[in-house]
Structure formats: C-alpha cells, structure tokens
Amino acid sequence: MTILDGKKVSNQIKEEIAVEVAKMRERGEKVPHLAAVIVGNDGASLTYVGSKVKSCEKVGFESTLVQLPSTTSEQELLNKIEELNKDENIDGFIVQLPLPDQIDTQRVLLAVDPDKDVDGFHPTNFGKMALDMSTFIPATPFGILELLERYNVETKGKHTVVIGRSHIVGRPMSILMGRKGWPGNSTVTLTHSHTKNITQIISQADIVISALGVPNFLKAEMVKDDAVVIDVGITRVPDDTKAKGYYITGDVDFENVSKKASFITPVPGGVGPMTIAMLLKNTLLARERHRSKK
Ligand SMILES: Nc1nc(=O)c2c([nH]1)NC[C@@H]1CN(c3ccc(C(=O)N[C@@H](CCC(=O)O)C(=O)O)cc3)C=[N+]21
Question: CA quadruple 281, 215, 207, 6: dihedral positive or negative?
Fold first, then answer.
C-alpha cells in the first residue's frame, strides 16, 4: 500500500512554482497576484482562505484578501467582482463557496471574467474542460489528477467510481477521468443520492473517488482488493479533547481501508493541500496568459 502524500507533493509543487516566480522577478516581470473574496465568517472557510493567502506568500505571489460581512447583498458582491475583473494588477481571483443564502451563487460565478477564473467554475471554463480545450481545471480535481500522475497510478481502462456529483468535485472529476490521455481513459460511473445498489457498484471499482462529506462512509468490506482510494471528504467533528475543539476526518475508514488498498490518500494531508497547490498553479498560468496577450 502506498500513501498518496498530498502534503509532500503539494510542497514540491509549491517549490517548483517558487522557482518560476523567482525567474519572473529576475527578469523584472510582474509576479502573479491572486485575490480571494470571502463573504461571512464561517470557520472552515476562513481557514481555507487563510491557507491560500499564506501559500501565496510562500511561493512569492502577491495576494489580496477581500473580506465582506455576512450581510453583503448580491449586488455588492457583483460590484466587487467587477472591480477585480477590471483591476489589471489581479491575475486571478476566487470567490470562496458556500455563499450566504441571500446571494445567488450561479449569478456570481457567471460574473467572474473567465480569464481570471482560477477556480475554473465559470461555464466557459467548465465547457472547455469537458471539450479537452486548454483552460483552468478546478483545483481539487486538478490536484487529484496531479497526485495520480506523480505516483504513476494507471488509470487507462480502469473502472473509476466517483461518489457525489457536486459542481466543484464530483462532476468535473467524472469528466476528467473519462477524457483521453493520462490520467484519464477510465470508464467512469458517477454515483449520487439516487444511485441504486451503490455498494455493489463501489465493489467493482478499481479507483474510488469519494466526495461525499460523510465520515466513515467508505468501509473496507466495500472496496475490492488493491483498489485506489481517493478521499475528498473533509468533515470537522467537534471534540473537546482537541486543542482546536474539533478534529478533521474524511469519508474513508482509513485504518481498515488502507490495509486493502493499493494507493490511498489520507485526511488531512491528502487532497486538501493539493487543492491549494493547484490553485497557485492556475494563478501562475493566468499570469503567463495575461503576459502573452499584451
Ligand atoms: N471557490 C472555492 N474554491 C475552492 O477551492 C473551495 C471553496 N470555494 N470552498 C471550500 C472548498 C474546500 N477547499 C479546501 C481547500 C483546502 C483544504 C485543506 O488544506 N485541508 C487540509 C486541512 C485543513 C484544515 O485544518 O481544515 C488537509 O486536508 O490536510 C481543504 C478544503 C477548497 N474549496
């Protein structure tokens, strides 16, 4: 069994990006600038955005954190997005999800300039991804592909079962694993809350990608021997004995599933850190594209 060490690989990727940024500086070029917009003060969202900003500093990017109150109206957020779209200094930005109820997420995602959409959530970019055109691939699926690639995991002809059809993980992952090339060329089954015989389907999977958010959902008896197991679930479980008052767990019963799997991602330290590294990679790409356009 091999652990797909997202922490380690994400640090390697950040080092590679830092080298590129240092070259940009030496050439006297502008370095990439990422902005993150967060509405409200959800604890987990603040943690993620905080680590995105910290990672920017680590690789030498410029970063801007835009914090708006939870009472922000949709129009106020759209105005902020327009400002970021027009700001020549900003190469890419993200609007952290989920957004408060008074804001229509679809309208917000449509307002982001596709050339600055480093999350890859705009329909233009999502469509390009599905059509194998060059674009920004959503960071979490991109991170999973990168892990499979760096650990030389065979995906061709394999049966990949994706659990969960969210717009930011399950849906794009199902498209990417079935694309031509590697990592891809897989036969994909996308499962969700209305899937019948889900345990039977999972038992046939060579590769399982669980993006459900239900702790301990995936148990050892559900996966076949030597399966590749990717755990995208991240749940904070309240626990008074921990310093932070909670611990983090994935969808997978790691202790037992890891005994059966050929490759497996841990939580924490798996897909999460890869997500951040790939967001930085997309931002570097955005900078390079903006430069070559001028
Ligand atoms: N517009 C937008 N883009 C996103 O990419 C996006 C988003 N909204 N909303 C929420 C999800 C979730 N997400 C994570 C990123 C890093 C970790 C991460 O680094 N996790 C650490 C643990 C961090 C902790 O202490 O909670 C780990 O797994 O090791 C987790 C989750 C990005 N998302």
Answer: positive
Are 80 and 68 within 8 A, CB to CB?
A: yes
Give the mutation target among 48, 108, 173 for probing the ligand 1 site: most ligand atoms within 8 A of CB: 48
The model scores a pTM over 0.95: yes
Question: Encoding tokens for residue 97?
Answer: 């999800």
For the sheet with 62-68, list strands across it.
62-68, 33-39, 92-95
Note the ipTM here: 0.97
* Residue tagged active-site, from 91, 117, 119, 231: 119
Give 196-233 pLDDT, tens digit per residue. Answer: 999 999 999 999 999 999 999 999 999 999 999 999 99
119 is known as an active-site residue: yes
Cα 24 to the center of its chain, rounded Å: 26
Domains observed in the chain: 28-113 (3.40.50.10860), 139-272 (3.40.50.720)
Q: Is the CB of 95 under 6 A from ligand 1?
A: yes
202 is in an annotated binding site: no
Amino acid at 113: D
Q: Tens digit of pLDDT for each residue in 49-62? A: 999 999 999 999 99
